[in-house]
Amino acid sequence: MQKKYFLPLFILIGFLASALFIRSKNTDKVRYQQEFTDKYRIYAVTVPTHLNFCGEKVPTSDFEVFERFDRELTINTYYQSSTILNIKRGSRYFPIIEPILRRNGIPDDFKYVCMIESGLTNVISPSNAVGFWQFIDETGKRFGLEINDEVDERYDIVKSTEAACAYFKQAYTQFNSWTLAAASYNLGINGIQNALNKQGTNNFYDLYLNTETSRYIMRIIAIKEIYEHPKIYGYYIPLFLRYPPVPVYSEEISAPIPNLIDFAKAHQITYKIFKTLNPWLRKTELRNKESKAYTVYFPKEGSEHLVSDFYGYDEQPDSVATPLIVPVDSLSTVASIQDSLVYVEINHLVEKKEDLNSIAKLYHTTVPKIMIWNSLELTTLKKDQTLRILVRKDLLGSVKIQESKK
């Protein structure tokens, strides 16, 4: 072949190779895009037709109200990390908040106000609102909370909930509407009253308000809807994965405490645990010059191990291995097997007043394991319900096998 043909041939070969490479890349891109389109799904939430706050109807037939609520329901459904933590924390703190609301005649739905205000944590906002209920200094003092450099009762879940109830009572007396009372917690009683007067209405849903307050009530109702119907919105958080209440006992103190760290140690707990249960004590001392009576909380004996006991995280390493499981009627077979990783399968018939905690202790296991073995989503049991239990072979001698009932 003559030299004058080499260069055009070389260019042609290069062009064909480039075309094949580009086509291959494009084919991969098309294939990837097709697979993405076929498999990836994000579903829009469905707004329930009947919604209420404290028994007061939410008029979702009003398109503006509908779309405002849809926005908050969508955001909270897909803000999964925050919503999961809200649900988990609710199991710990709602048992404290609910009786206080009930005792003060405040509807149960107001617990969700606390949830959206702080995520059930003792946070401080940019405007220096503090605690679960996010009181600013002036409002907290007005509703009976002590706030100084040593003591800040905005951090006390019991006392701050009492103060919030006093606020809601006052607001309800003003508006005769729990929805407006809740909205005023964001905008203020005077702010809501001025808006009602200017716009000639007594209905929250007919008000034109600033963006924050107009979203506020919808956010409360959205988190209430998800918390009360989690599976509808894709949340599977069984009870054993929610945070259990910490059992505590209280003591009244009226004398000065020069060193709270030593005070905690004298009660055989760490300062960390003491502060976790008493965050309203703001310094490492309590001078208490006026000899006021304060209630402090301590964990009941064994409470510090509650998480390990409840969730089953304090397991022996071999318990996570894949065990050999044999039925209880094959005890002779079990005896001949030397490996301790043999588990004996037992059927336990639930007796009257038995619960998962007592059954777990009976068989030296944990609540989460029993729930997993039996595909349980709730911890409530029924009499004569049959539970599948696995008992490690080396613990079998300390287990009393339930007699079969005919």
Structure in words:
By secondary structure, this protein is mainly alpha-helical. It has three domains: 52-241, Orthogonal Bundle (Lysozyme), CATH 1.10.530; 248-302; 315-398, LysM domain (Membrane-bound Lytic Murein Transglycosylase D, Chain A), CATH 3.10.350. It has 15 helices and seven strands. The strands form three sheets. It has a three-stranded mixed β-sheet with strand order 5-6-7. Strands 1-2 form a two-stranded antiparallel sheet. A two-stranded antiparallel ribbon has the order 3-4. Strand 1 and strand 2 (56-57) form a beta hairpin. It is extended and about 105 Å long. The model is unreliable at 313-323 (pLDDT under 50).
What's the helix and strand layout?
Layout: H1 6-39, E1 52-53, E2 56-57, H2 63-78, H3 80-103, H4 111-118, H5 137-142, H6 157-175, H7 178-187, H8 189-199, H9 211-228, E3 248-253, H10 260-266, H11 271-277, E4 294-299, H12 306-311, E5 324-327, H13 331-336, E6 342-349, H14 356-362, H15 367-373, E7 386-392
Parallel strand pairs: 5-6
Antiparallel strand pairs: 1-2, 3-4, 6-7
Write a brief structural summary:
With 406 residues, this protein is mainly α. It has helices spanning 6-39, 63-78, 80-103, 111-118, 137-142, 157-175, 178-187, 189-199, 211-228, 260-266, 271-277, 306-311, 331-336, 356-362, 367-373; strands at 52-53, 56-57, 248-253, 294-299, 324-327, 342-349, 386-392.
